[in-house]
Write a structure and sequence with these properties.
Elements lengths: L9 H4 L12 H4 L6 H19 L16 H7 L13 H7 L5 H4 L29 H5 L6 E7 L4 H10 L6 H11 L20 E4 L4 H7 L3 H6 L14 E3 L11 H8 L3 E3 L7 E9 L3 H12 L4 E9 L2
This protein binds zinc ion (2 copies).
The site of one zinc ion has 9 residues, from helix 4.
Amino acid sequence: MPGTTHTGDWRAQLSPQHSLPVQPNRDRMNPAASTPARATSHAGAFARLTAFLSGHRCPGCATPCVGWVCADCEHRLNRPQLRCVGCALPLTAALAAAAKPDALQATNTDTPAAAPRDASQPPPQTPPQPAATRCGRCLSEPSPVAASYAAFDYAAPGDRLVQALKFNQRTALAAPLAVLLAGALPSGEAAPDASSCAAQPRFDRILPIPLSPSRERSRGYNQSWELVRRLPPALGPACWQTLVRTRDTASQMALPHTERERNVRGAFAVQRDVADLHLLLVDDVMTTGATLFEAARVLRKAGAASVTALALARTP
Ligand SMILES: [Zn+2]
Ligand SMILES: [Zn+2]
C-alpha cells in the first residue's frame, strides 16, 4: 500500500483540541513547595477546587473534574490490554471461551509452545506478546477481517462514554474518543498487505458502520461517523456512504448470540467502488463481531483487498 510512511505516537501528532488532557506536573505547578508531600497536597486541593468551580463532571464516573474525564477514568481507559487480533476479545476471556483445549498454546502462531530452555542462555525478560496473537476460535474459523482492534472494554467507564456519545447527544466526546480509537491500532505494525517497511497502518478509505436512514434521522447523527471524521488524516481518508445499510436491524446487544449473525445478514450494501482497496471499518461497539464481520464480507465480496475492523469498545 502506498504511503505507509507514518511512524510515531498518534497523540503527539494530533492538533491541540484533540489532545488528551495531561495531568499537571505537580512540582511545576507549585515549585515553592518545601516537600513533595506538601506539593501533592496543595496541587490536589487546587485541582479539586478548580473542578468544583468548573461544574464539569466526568462522563465516565460523574465525579467533578477539569479534563474531559477524570484522572482515574483516563488511567482505566488507557490501561494496556492484550487482545486477540482476530476478534479483539481480551485474550484471557477469549481463551476461556475457546473450545479448543490446547487454545493456550494455539493463541500465538508466531510463538510455538515453550520448548525446554537452554540453561546456558539467559531467561527471557518478558513474556512474548506479539501483535499476531489469536484466540483458539479465530485460529480455527476463518475471519473476513484482516485484523480487529478495540480501544477499551465495554465496561465502566468506557460503556458510559459510549452511551453518552451514542444516546445523549454528547458528540463533543467524539474528539478525545477518536484519539483513543487511533491509539488502538498497533504502532510499528505494517498494514495487512504490507510489503514495505514497518509503519503505522494507513488505509485507502476509512468507513463507519452505517445506521439505517430512519435511525440516523431520529438520532441526528451516526456516532461511528463522528469518530471516523475525527481520526488523524494520516490514517487515510474518511469516506461517507461507501457502505450503506439497506434495512433497519434490531440492536445487537438485545439479541442472544445465536441470532446476531442472522439479524445483520443482508443488511449492508456497497455503493461505491472498493475494488483492490485496503479499508478500515469503524464501529462504536463490537459485541460479538457479527455486524463488523458481515459488513466486511460485503466489502470483500465487492472486491476490497482487505478490511480491518476497529471498535471503540469491545464487549468482553
Ligand atoms: Zn471519571
Ligand atoms: Zn479471537
